[in-house]
Amino acid sequence: RYMGLLNTKNSKSTIERKLASLRAFFDYLQKEKIIKTNPAKLIPTPKKEKKLPVFLSVDEMFRLIDQSVYKGVQGIRDKAMLELMYSSGIRVGELVNLKLDNLNIEKNELKLLGKGSKQRIVPVGKKAIETLLEYLQKRELLKPKADYVFINNRGDKISERSIGRIVKKFAQAASLSKNISPHALRHSFATHLLGSGADLRAIQDMLGHSSLSVTQKYTHTSIERIMEVYDKTHPRS
Fold first, then answer.
1. Which domain holds residue 22?
2. What value, to the nearest 5°, has the Cα angle with vertex 153 and ends 151 and 157?
3. Of residues 77, 157, 186, 187, which has the active-site annotation?
4. Domain check: are 183 and 124 in the same one?
5. Do both 71 and 130 map to the same domain?
6. Mean pLDDT of 98-111
7. Confidence at residue 83, expressed as pLDDT on a 0 to 100 scale
């Protein structure tokens, strides 16, 4: 009866939290020999709802990147970071740790050290390379103290938190109501590739996912694409 009441009024995460407290309470009673068994252990934990990743449409992505929030070298740096995240699907943690010798400008490539210390090489688009070169020409104005590509105004490696704030400022300037984080650019990268017909395994390699099942969360967009194609081509749609 108690679980029935919980299910009608609470989210699955709240139910899971309350159930954990209940189990701990009965564990205590069992240790004190007040009860023989823990009845709460027989109650299955509800499965959490899987949320679809937040992503931007192509038009929203262009609006985001085309904003001019800051001027000078800082503005060029910020735009280069956004271009690079969207162009390569790079994780924000990989972006802050990107070093100058990880760049292969001639081949339009990045050499990344991802999760589990796994190396991978990812392609980068022309627009991102152009913006990156523009930034690198003026990077010395920030008086770099290390060979990290993206540095703050003190010359130190830029932080993930700073990049998060920058992305939010760009999103506000573009009047985007979605909750945009650096990870949303990575989601958008994968979503747009998949929507254009890219192979799922190729996307897996570019994102640095250890398992194809992790990449499959982006297939939500294929439903939109299927419906769009259906509406445009089927004679009875």
1. 2-42
2. 25
3. 186
4. yes
5. yes
6. 94
7. 96
pTM confidence score:
0.72
Place of tokens 């992505």: 61
Asked about 192 being catalytic, the answer comes back as no
For strands 103-104 and 109-113, give the pairing: antiparallel
Per the annotation, the verdict on 154 as an active-site residue is no
**Average pLDDT for 17-33:** 85
CATH number at residue 172: 1.10.443.10
pLDDT value of residue 237: 47
Please indicate whether residue 220 is annotated as part of the active site.
no
The single residue of 79, 91, 139, 187 carrying the catalytic annotation is 91
The answer to whether residue 230 is catalytic is: no
Choosing from 17, 48, 115, 161, the catalytic residue is 115
84, with CB counted inside 10 A (0-12, 13-18, 19+), is buried
Name the CA radius of gyration of the chain, rounded: 23
Bridge partners (DSSP) of residue 151 are: 157
Whether residue 51 lies inside any domain: the answer is: no
Locate 122 and state its tokens: 């990812």
Query: Within this chain, do residues 78 and 147 fall inside the same structural domain, yes or no?
Result: yes
User: Is 51 one of the catalytic residues?
Assistant: no
Q: What are phi and psi of 112, to 5 degrees?
A: -115, 150
Please indicate whether residue 77 is annotated as part of the active site.
Answer: no
Residues 6+ apart with CB under 8 A from 147: 99, 100, 101
Q: Which of the following is catalytic: 23, 183, 217, 225?
A: 183
Q: Give 221's strand partners.
A: none
Give the phi and the psi of residue 45 in degrees, each rounded to 5: -75, 130
